[in-house]
UniProtKB/TrEMBL annotation:
Record InterPro entries: Ada-like_dom_sf (IPR035451), Ada_DNA_repair_Zn-bd (IPR004026), Homeodomain-like_sf (IPR009057), HTH_AraC (IPR018060), Me-P-triester_DNA_alkyl-Trfase (IPR016220)
Cofactors that this protein relies on: Zn(2+)
Name of the protein: Bifunctional transcriptional activator/DNA repair enzyme AdaA
Superkingdom, taxonomy of origin: Bacteria
Ranges where the HTH araC/xylS-type domain occurs: 89-187
Keyword Transcription: yes
Matches recorded under Pfam families: Ada_Zn_binding, HTH_18
Assigned keywords, A-Z: Activator, DNA-binding, Methyltransferase, Transcription, Transcription regulation, Transferase
Protein source organism: Sporosarcina contaminans
């Protein structure tokens, strides 16, 4: 599961340089110059940020040609129990599997087993946005994909990714990309044909 894509680079970089163990298992960082990848908590020397790439699993890092660090052994499972990390992982997983449905923060919170207030707070602290914003970003990314790879019109796409009204889809899309779905499609289709 690679949800590191939805953590901002900035969040992952900050976790890396502060050796934040709460992100262990959530993402891994690899260093180009050494060919080695680590858990965020690893106390090895802080790399240059331009040499760092991030991965959602040890598998992905290894497939990209990196070797596991001998110090933090990112290739082994962590047995350390951090309830907050589990809550985050459960929430992200829930959003990914159910974004097509009408998903409320109450649904998410009760499924994960915490109050919505608590969920909002830890999500903001660790991921840098609320679960609602996370869901919105996730849906908008899906919409972009569908706009560029299918013939569905923007109304159909809005409903397909779980929006209950087209106006809320449009405003979410605009908020995240600066464009309407149709502008986005036209712009990218034109850019692609220009490059040919
Ligand atoms: Zn390490």
């Amino acid at each position: 599961m690679s949800h590191q894509y939805y953590l901002s680079k900035d969040t992952m970089w900050k976790a890396t340089i502060s050796c934040d163990a709460t992100y262990d298992g959530v993402f891994f960082y690899a260093v180009k110059t050494t060919g080695i990848f680590c858990r965020p908590s690893c106390k090895s020397r802080i790399p240059n940020d331009e040499n760092v790439s991030f991965f959602g699993s040890a598998d992905e890092a290894q497939k990209a040609g990196y070797r596991p660090c001998k110090r933090c052994r990112p290739d082994l499972c962590v047995s350390k129990y951090d309830p907050l990390t589990f809550i985050l992982e459960d929430t992200i997983c829930l959003i990914k599997n159910n974004y097509i449905q009408n998903l409320s923060l109450d649904d998410i919170a009760s499924n994960v087993g915490v109050s919505r207030f608590h969920l909002n707070r830890i999500f903001k602290e660790r991921i840098g946005c609320t679960p609602r914003m996370y869901l919105e970003k996730f849906r908008v990314n899906k919409a972009k994909e569908l706009l560029l790879t299918t013939q569905f019109n923007s109304t159909q796409i809005g409903y397909q990714i779980g929006y209950q009204s087209i106006s809320s889809f449009y405003s979410a899309f605009k908020r995240n990309t600066g464009f309407s779905p149709n502008q986005f499609r036209t712009l990218h289709v034109r850019n692609c044909s220009n490059q040919k």
